Amino acid sequence: MHIAIAGNIGAGKTTLTKLLAKHFKWEPHYEDVVDNPYLDDFYHQMERWSFNLQIYFLNSRFRQVLQIRESGKKIIQDRTIYEDAYIFAPNLYSMGLMTSRDFENYTSLFELMEGLVKAPDLLIYLRSSIPNLVGQIHKRGRDYENSISIDYLSRLNERYEAWVQTYTKGKLLIIDVDNINFVDNPEDLGNIINRIDAELNGLF
């Protein structure tokens, strides 16, 4: 079984992945942020490094999805292969931070890969407002994220919402994270767990 958590930068994907993995005894697969050799360069010079970064993420996530399917285990994944292709890469292109040539090359490669992977059995989307995202990003204090602009986050949020409205690849659960605290409030986490149980086991 393959569960995946989607959401904008700072929405709480990694934290929720850890909590759900612990509760359900699922194996967590995290986004490759620590070892990513392009991330710091990208945030300082987006136009120069956008294509390199997106190709790195595409490669990393494609490898991850193949491993998930081959393992036969119950796995929860922090961010999906679709978010890069439908949200991050098109956003960089529309902002003039990726050339048409690079974007077409990237899209072609993604389409080839997409034909070889299956969608998650359940996609959990963490919906968040911009003020909440900014607060979370500042709270975790990653140096390379200091230069992320409100405009950049807003554009990503718009693309996330548009993507989720048209998502038909599998089961989808939308969780509004603005007014809940699943880290410090067991009741909030319990509500999320109950909703996931309902989606997976068809209780409602």
TrEMBL record:
Pfam families: dNK (PF01712). Residues 3-197 form the Deoxynucleoside kinase domain. InterPro entries: DCK/DGK, Deoxyribonucleoside_kinase, DNK_dom, P-loop_NTPase. Keywords: Kinase, Transferase. One of its GO terms (molecular function) is kinase activity. Gene3D superfamilies: P-loop containing nucleotide triphosphate hydrolases (3.40.50.300). It comes from the Bacteria. The keyword Kinase applies. This is Deoxynucleoside kinase. It comes from Flavobacterium piscisymbiosum.
